[in-house]
Design brief:
Keywords: Glycosidase, Hydrolase, Signal. Belongs to the glycosyl hydrolase 5 (cellulase A) family. Pfam families: Cellulase (PF00150). This is Glycoside hydrolase family 5 domain-containing protein. This protein is an alpha/beta fold. It has 14 helices and 13 strands. Helix 9 links the parallel strand 8 and strand 9. The radius of gyration is 21 Å and the shape is globular.
């Protein structure tokens, strides 16, 4: 697969050699940086504009209509209680197959996107309880996505949304309510090793343009301040591990406070191919909201990327996208596909009996014994899960035309 992708160069990054290079020596044919720009292999500026594949490999409760079961492990617990562990495993395997197909990627490209940001959980490559065990099949889904992306003319950013021990303590990192990554050296070493293995796998694949090392580390909340100085050291450790095997790819570095604060990056010599990433959700889409990032870019002469924004009206998305474009900032909006939502590129309706599943996950405050008394019938659970798998497929989803049009670049 890697040979095929390496041979299938995107039109965007031009046909170029993809020979293997010794560690420390960049190979030709890869996206790079030049001052404050991200550049294609021919040296031309490359403006990234794309979408996140949220809820594919890292489920989030709100995208299923859940309010109580929000982290991936909590969502799986609900399905295990309702359908059993074997059915849970089968469901998530089928979900991964159904959620993203080549038809989805073709639609994304035709909508004007040129890059995918792909959230993943480190457990895809190594079980949480067995740090010395590596799952070779963990690359299968990503390899297929990368191959499809090459065919459709899309680039790929790999985003570690869920790092060993948790980098945020929030639901999206699939942890246990605290950023334990910063309390245990073993967690840091494991994070570096996961990225080293990923980099070794994709080092010669130009469709993958870079590695987003930690999604939204250290959000602004009580108790996180002591860990802030450690984040740069974690980045240094991970980047060093990547560079032992891969000199070719970009590394994307997010700031603290939900990727909104670059103050930790006083020293921007972390890597010559680093891109600094911010996220933006809450404030109004105004020019002044970008000022601190523009100042950072100008002061340090480094590229920046808007990695996540959205969860808002079409008008908000359009206004913010236009501001980013005016200032030459690449972007990957959140997100591609969601259940019963307007704030995404495609949506799908809840299947029959899904309301019963949603009601059950809301019983988290009860004992398991009490929840058993109120669980829906097994046949309803099976119908709901099968129905969801059917409706998430591309042909069963519908386009949110307003959202898609809000992301289109004006001619």
């Amino acid at each position: 697969m890697r040979t095929l992708v390496a041979a299938t160069m995107l039109a965007l990054i031009l046909a170029a050699g993809t020979r293997a290079a010794p560690a420390g020596e960049p190979a030709p044919g890869f996206v790079s940086t030049r001052g404050a720009e991200i550049v294609a292999p021919d040296g031309a500026p490359l403006r990234l504009r794309g979408i996140n594949l949220g809820n594919w490999l890292v489920p989030e409760g709100y995208m299923f209509g859940f309010r109580d079961a929000t982290a991936p492990w909590q969502i799986r617990q609900v399905i295990k209680e309702l359908a059993g562990p074997e059915a849970d495993t089968a469901f998530w395997r089928a979900w991964a197959e159904a959620f993203v197909t080549q038809d989805d990627l073709r639609f994304i490209r035709q909508a004007g996107m040129n890059v995918l940001r792909v959230p993943f959980d480190y457990r895809q490559f190594t079980p949480e309880e067995y740090p010395d065990v590596w799952v070779e099949d963990g690359f299968r889904l990503l390899d297929r996505l990368v191959e499809w992306s090459a065919r459709e003319g899309l680039l790929v950013i790999l985003d570690m949304h869920a790092a060993p021990c948790g980098q945020s303590g929030h639901n999206m990192d699939n942890s246990y309510g605290f950023p334990h990554l910063f309390t245990d050296e073993a967690c840091i070493r494991r994070t570096a090793e996961v990225w080293r293995r990923i980099a070794a796998h994709y080092r010669d694949v130009p469709t993958v343009i870079g590695y987003d090392l930690l999604n939204e580390p250290l959000p602004e909340q009580e108790g996180n301040d002591p860990f802030t100085p450690m984040l740069v050291r974690v980045y240094e450790t991970v980047v060093a591990a990547i560079r032992t095997v891969d000199p070719n790819h970009l590394v994307f570095l997010s700031g603290i406070n939900a990727a909104s604060d670059f103050s930790i990056f006083a020293n921007t010599a972390l890597d010559r191919k680093a891109v600094y990433e911010f996220h933006f959700y809450v404030a109004a889409p105004e020019e002044r909201a970008l000022e601190k990032y523009l100042r950072f870019r100008a002061a340090h002469d480094v590229p920046i990327l808007m990695g996540e924004a959205g969860e808002n009206t079409d008008e908000w998305v359009r206004a913010y996208r236009e501001i980013l474009d005016r200032h030459g900032i690449g972007w990957t909006f959140w997100t591609y596909k969601k259940l019963d939502s307007r704030s995404c590129m495609r949506t799908y309706a809840p299947p029959p009996h899904w309301d019963a599943v949603v009601a059950y996950q809301g019983l988290a405050g009860l004992t398991l014994t009490d929840r058993r008394k109120r669980r829906p019938p097994p046949e309803a659970v099976r119908a709901a899960l099968d129905g969801l798998l059917g409706r998430v497929r591309f042909g069963a989803t519908t386009e949110n035309r307003g959202f898609v049009e809000a992301l289109r670049i004006d001619p």
